[in-house]
Automatic annotation (TrEMBL):
This is Pyridoxamine kinase/Phosphomethylpyrimidine kinase domain-containing protein. Residues 18-253 form the Pyridoxamine kinase/Phosphomethylpyrimidine kinase domain. It comes from the Eukaryota. The lineage of its organism: Eukaryota, Fungi, Dikarya, Ascomycota, Pezizomycotina. It holds the Pfam family Phos_pyr_kin.
Amino acid sequence: MQPGGVLVFGCSDELVNSGLKADERAITAQGVPVITVSAGSAIRNGEEPVDNTATALEALINETGDALRKIDCKVVKIGALFSAESIRIVARTLQQSEHLMTVLDAEPFFKTGPAPKQEAVTALRKEILPSVKVLSATVPEVKALLDEAGIPVDYPKSIQDVQSMANTLRNLGPEYVIIKREMFEETDGMTTLHFVLCGGEEPLIVASRFENPKKLFGASYSIPPVIAAHLAKGYGTQEAVSASFKFVEEMIKGGDYFS
């Protein structure tokens, strides 16, 4: 059994920089053991995910059990899950191991193929969110979760509005909420990464603008698995989040997104 690792639930994907492959590479780059469990596969039209197929529930249960026997899991990172039933299987894993820290990446849950069914969003909110240490999302995913919970909010117009959204979502269970954004400007070849982290101490608000020599976009998808890796190494939450954004920034600056 490998010590101090990360168990990742997510989507199998033919693209090397997407889904479980990307998560595995990001975590391995931090020197942390990782094992993955596929909740389903993305179906693509070119690079665009257009549909998905879910892993059979019995297979998901068996793969989860096998994974937990192979690795001493400190952190669970959750990405795309495709049904309320699969969400409940993952939730039972979290409930049976109270020592586990959970990082939920809401982007792949909402963006891998068609929009998730209402019952899946409800199951995510009720079954997973109360166990989450760190929830990472962009504004649309936060709004979708709050809308499902019957908490209507407007799109934010200021950093204070973003903080308010994050703290409102924390009321549904997550200890920490990160709302992040990645922007690339074609005109000057610059990328901006910024995030608001709410929870625990004072809110952490960070923005960084830097050269992007290879015009890479989408590297911020690697931030949640890197956060999971740093938590597994014993970092505090703010330290783990800051180090993860810095890792992705340096990767973009170097033009090396796991190429």
